[in-house]
Specification:
Number of helices: 7
Radius of gyration: 18 Å
CATH architecture: Up-down Bundle
CATH class: Mainly Alpha
Number of domains: 1
CATH superfamily: VKOR domain
Structural class: mainly alpha
Order of helices and strands: HHHHHHH
Shape: globular
Distance between the termini: 41 Å
Amino acid sequence: MKEISQPKTLYKIITIASSVGLVASFLQMLEKLILLENPNAVLTCDINSVFSCTNILNSWQSSVFGFPNTLMCIIYFSLLLAIGLVGWTGSNINKKLRLTLQGMTLFFIGFGFWYLWQSIFAVGGLCIFCMFCYGAVLFISGSMLRLNYKDYSKNKSVTRFFENMIAKQYDILIWIFIAIAIIIETIIKFA
């Protein structure tokens, strides 16, 4: 069994997670286009009053930067899919590029958490596609952390901290904690 910290395994996780996120983003973009054509359309992702893409896609939060958030996700997941495939096939990814992608991923962690918070507590619903996208971002972020932690600092104590955290798999607990926090938010609001 391959160790989860091996670069090829991590790039494989990035590739698979990016594929899931890209498909979810693409499907969500199709739903947004249907909604723009016909504001009264019943979307396929409208399961009930809680899981309602229509409510989410009609909110201002779904176009924070003036265009649908989904477009930003499609670009992000496409980029990470390409990088994941390059790394998975054995090519070396430049340190500056990896750290830049890590920064982008951290932005999406924060943005996604804010967006889910807004969806749950301000809009009062959840988008299935958003959940898949955020799950993909969590997997990508965890993999990027394991790929990049040695490059965060030249300080040996910082590097030892991350080595210890990853050796004991505390980093995985962080990602699980974030997922549990979202689940708890959902239960509090909709239970």
